[in-house]
Write a structure and sequence with these properties.
about 425 residues; alpha/beta; TIM Barrel; six-stranded parallel β-sheet; two-stranded antiparallel ribbon; about 40% helix; about 10% strand
Length: about 425
């Protein structure tokens, strides 16, 4: 079946930026003909961020040089400045690769982080969380997983909740530095991601922190204040696409997670509603920025740790969140059917995470096309997009695939967007 053409990639009222070409290589060459050689823009540099048909969650596989750099720094063999230079070189290279593959947005791959959680680490009061990441060089040496298959595993962050030692205060916005460096390398829009308040509160040991915060709601208010400040600084620096990592929302449909909440005397739906409000508050007031929120079931080292379909929370979650783009994991049967998409409000884009980042098998255009066709039964094609189901390396070690497989998956994503939406 041939989908109807919906061209929403170009800016409203403007023509396509360049004529259609038959390959990404030819398109890139064509762009170089029109633009300065030193820094050419992608075909879609002026497109509508809200309605783009592809996306990146955030992390990419770290090259061995970055892993080795973290180990050497953790063991005291190199300085922080030397580690940063290693990261700078790797980020320059991965940005160039993204541009060469004609991705409409780029990311720094989270090459400066050991985990997607680290965006909240330079905050007074969470010293225990900071100390935890100092063991990353030891983690790289351990064989703590099956290196050949994806499987269910526990998330150590959630098993070992951390106390807060003082009132939260932003000490340094490391994301601001990351954005400025990456944006200096390209004229493509740079996406920056940070951990959402829902996940932060799920890692918080309320009982152990009573001397600082009398209850979780009080703690969450300060989380919102800190993250709103981080986003404000990013927005002022020119960042136009900010992604919120919110894997915690699947806890409200996962039987084991729901049971754990109830054992602590928590009402899962009340906690979710509080988290939705917090997520909305951290992005409030930024008219110039587009916000995406990513919801998944776990991704550390190709493992997953939650089960449950979206059905029970979709109406409240999809309608309640104020983010313009909902990045939803849909690469396995654990996500359930596309039926909950009917609750996505007008004006929002549901980004279907159909491409798995957990294994190296590269999906075919036809199979992804069929799945989009199925999803379009419940939500207009104009409100759909496609992406990987999660990042390729939520933690430093990364998932069970190669860099070549990673970029082949992204090429397939772009080809699907071209065929389905004429993007």
């Amino acid at each position: 079946m041939r989908f109807p053409v919906v061209n929403l990639l170009s800016s409203p009222g403007k023509n396509r930026i360049v004529p259609r070409t038959t390959s990404y290589e030819a398109a890139a060459a064509q762009s170089r003909h029109f633009l300065p050689e030193r820094k050419f823009m992608s075909l879609y540099s002026n497109f509508n961020l809200q309605s783009m048909r592809v996306d990146l969650v955030g992390s990419l596989l770290r090259p061995q040089s970055v892993k080795d750099g973290f180990v050497a720094f953790g063991e005291g063999k190199i300085s922080e400045a030397q580690l940063k230079e290693t990261q700078n070189k790797a980020i320059r290279e991965v940005v160039a690769k993204q541009v060469a593959h004609n991705l409409p947005i780029v990311v720094d791959g989270e090459f400066r982080r050991t985990s997607f959680m680290e965006s909240f680490s330079v905050v007074a009061g969470v010293e225990e969380w900071q100390a935890g990441v100092k063991s990353y060089h030891e983690v790289l040496k351990r064989a703590d997983r099956d290196e050949t298959v994806t499987h269910k595993g526990q998330d150590p962050i959630l098993l070992n909740r951390k106390q807060v030692t003082q009132k939260l205060k932003l000490m340094r916005n490391s994301l601001l530095d990351d954005f400025r460096f990456t944006q200096s390398l390209t004229e493509q829009p740079v996406k920056v991601t940070l951990i959402g308040p829902d996940r932060i509160q799920q890692c918080y040991d309320a009982e152990a922190s009573r001397a600082v915060y009398s209850n979780t709601a009080e703690f969450l208010r300060d989380v919102v204040t800190v993250e709103h400040e981080m986003i404000e600084q990013l927005s002022q620096a020119g960042c136009r696409y900010i992604g919120i990592d919110a894997p915690g929302y699947t806890a409200y449909v996962d039987p084991n997670s729901v049971a754990a909440m109830r054992s602590r005397g928590e009402d899962p739906m009340e906690v979710m509603e509080r988290s939705i409000q917090a997520d909305n508050e951290i992005i409030a007031g930024f008219a110039d920025a587009i916000f995406g929120i990513h919801i998944c079931r776990g991704n550390r080292q190709s493992m997953w740790h939650r089960e449950g379909h979206y059905d029970a929370i979709a109406e409240k979650l999809f309608a309640g969140l104020q983010h313009q783009r909902l990045l939803l994991e849909y690469d396995t049967e654990r996500a359930g059917s596309f039926e909950p998409l009917r609750f996505v409000p007008k004006g929002k884009i549901a980004v279907l995470g159909l491409i798995t980042t957990k294994v190296g098998r590269v999906e075919s255009v036809d199979e992804l096309w069929r799945r989009i066709d199925e999803a379009a039964r419940y939500l207009s094609l104009e409100q759909l997009a496609i992406s990987p189901q999660c990042g390729f390396a939520s933690s430093l070690r990364g998932n069970l695939l190669t860099e070549d497989e990673q970029f082949r998956k992204l090429d397939v994503m772009l080809e699907v967007a071209r065929r389905v939406w004429d993007a």
